């Protein structure tokens, strides 16, 4: 449990005073770089595994199958490699572990520190992958990327929700998803151009450029304030109120601050937080919290995003055509996220 409180309208239906200040906007922008990190890796990995120099160096058996494949053969078989599967899946296994562990860091030391840890881990993973000369270096780099993504994905949405004003919370939260889709789109563009490099080292640049969003979130997080909810949870009420005044752009924050303190005290009073989720009154929320992402995954959208190049190549597209098709898919994902920023608060989440 994160131990935080994202705010709400007051009990009588009146919204808390405050406005969308430049400080809040920039804070959410920097935090959203966590989505850029995840999106870039989603887009870059599929493109790299389709580059012949990369396959020839690290997965020669896959490269040989690809070169000797006949048109009548099953095109999926050429990518049948346990090591290649480990390379792609190790990131998500590491992200799963990191998501569970980072919740303690997020609660104990704040969202900001968790985001900073995620950026540092991602930077280390990007560097290791860019200079890899053995498969184990690729896999270890992918695991570091996964730990970084797990930290960022666990802390960033909470942080943005706690800092954003009630009226703009939906739109600012969508910026995380927008940054994710932009990361996918940028990765597809870079893959397209780096694949054309004559020296055969384009894959190194594709993997190495993951360091750019990592550096962005590290530098940005250093200057980010902690969220008021996190400060209250850690007993820093005075500092929390000062920060709330700054991010709301008004001194009239007593009502919201009072609710934040009460929510924090109520949360601390719960002895068994995880088991409380199984109580009847929380069961609908628990079911929806699990069902929504579960069925979103079952749509296969993430698989299409990650393996877009492989899918396009197996149905007969050439290398350049596959890269271009992935760019188009990534571009429309970013466009859809951009549109949702303007409609999520106006027309509601459902």
Q: What's the number of helices?
A: 17
Question: In total, how many domains does the architecture comprise?
Answer: 1
Q: What is the CATH first-level class name? A: Mainly Alpha
Quick one: CATH superfamily? Answer: MFS general substrate transporter like domains
Structural class by helix and strand composition:
mainly alpha
Explained architecture:
The protein has 17 helices and no strands. Helix content is 75%, strand content 0%. The model is unreliable at 1-13 (pLDDT under 50). It is an all-alpha fold and 350 residues long. It has helices spanning 22-48, 52-58, 60-68, 82-109, 111-130, 135-163, 169-194, 202-208, 211-223, 228-233, 237-248, 254-269, 273-276, 283-298, 301-306, 308-314, 319-347. The chain has one domain (22-224, 300-347): MFS general substrate transporter like domains (Growth Hormone, Chain: A, Up-down Bundle), CATH 1.20.1250.20. Helix 4 (82-109) packs parallel to helix 6 (135-163) and helix 5 (111-130) runs antiparallel to helix 8. Belongs to the major facilitator superfamily. Sugar transporter (TC 2.A.1.1) family. Its main location: membrane. It is a multi-pass membrane protein. Pfam families: Sugar_tr.
Helix and strand arrangement:
Elements: H1 22-48, H2 52-58, H3 60-68, H4 82-109, H5 111-130, H6 135-163, H7 169-194, H8 202-208, H9 211-223, H10 228-233, H11 237-248, H12 254-269, H13 273-276, H14 283-298, H15 301-306, H16 308-314, H17 319-347
Helix pairs in contact: 1-6, 1-7, 1-9, 2-3, 4-5, 4-6, 5-6, 5-8, 5-9, 6-7, 7-8, 7-17, 16-17
């Amino acid at each position: 449990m994160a131990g935080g409180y994202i705010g709400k309208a007051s009990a009588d239906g009146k919204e808390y005073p405050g406005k969308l200040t430049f400080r809040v906007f920039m804070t959410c922008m920097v935090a959203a770089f966590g989505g850029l990190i995840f999106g870039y890796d989603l887009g870059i990995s599929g493109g790299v595994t389709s580059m012949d120099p990369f396959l020839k160096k690290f997965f020669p058996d896959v490269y040989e199958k690809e070169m000797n494949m006949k048109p009548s053969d099953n095109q999926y078989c050429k990518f049948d490699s346990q090591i290649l599967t480990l390379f792609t899946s190790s990131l998500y296994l590491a992200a799963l572990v990191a998501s569970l562990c980072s919740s303690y860091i997020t609660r104990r030391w704040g969202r900001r520190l968790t985001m900073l840890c995620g950026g540092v881990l991602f930077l280390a993973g990007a560097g290791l992958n860019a200079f890899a000369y053995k498969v184990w270096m690729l896999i270890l780099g992918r695991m570091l990327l996964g730990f970084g993504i797990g930290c960022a994905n666990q802390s960033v949405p909470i942080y943005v929700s706690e800092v954003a004003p009630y009226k703009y919370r939906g739109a600012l939260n969508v910026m995380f998803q927008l940054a994710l889709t932009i990361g996918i789109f940028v990765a597809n563009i870079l893959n397209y151009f780096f694949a054309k490099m004559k020296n055969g080292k384009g894959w190194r640049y594709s993997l190495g450029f993951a360091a750019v969003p990592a550096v962005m979130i590290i530098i940005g997080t250093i200057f980010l304030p902690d969220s008021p909810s996190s400060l209250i949870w850690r007993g820093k009420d005075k500092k929390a109120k000062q920060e709330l005044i700054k991010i709301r752009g008004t001194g009239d924050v007593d009502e919201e601050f009072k609710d934040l303190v009460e929510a924090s005290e109520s949360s601390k009073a719960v002895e068994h937080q995880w088991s409380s989720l199984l109580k009847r009154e929380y069961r609908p929320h628990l079911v929806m919290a699990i069902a929504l992402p579960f069925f979103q995954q079952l749509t296969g959208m993430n698989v299409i995003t990650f393996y877009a190049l492989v899918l396009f190549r197996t149905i007969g597209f050439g290398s350049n055509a596959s890269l271009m098709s992935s760019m188009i898919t990534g571009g429309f994902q970013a466009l859809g996220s951009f549109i949702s920023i303007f409609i999520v608060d106006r027309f509601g989440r459902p």
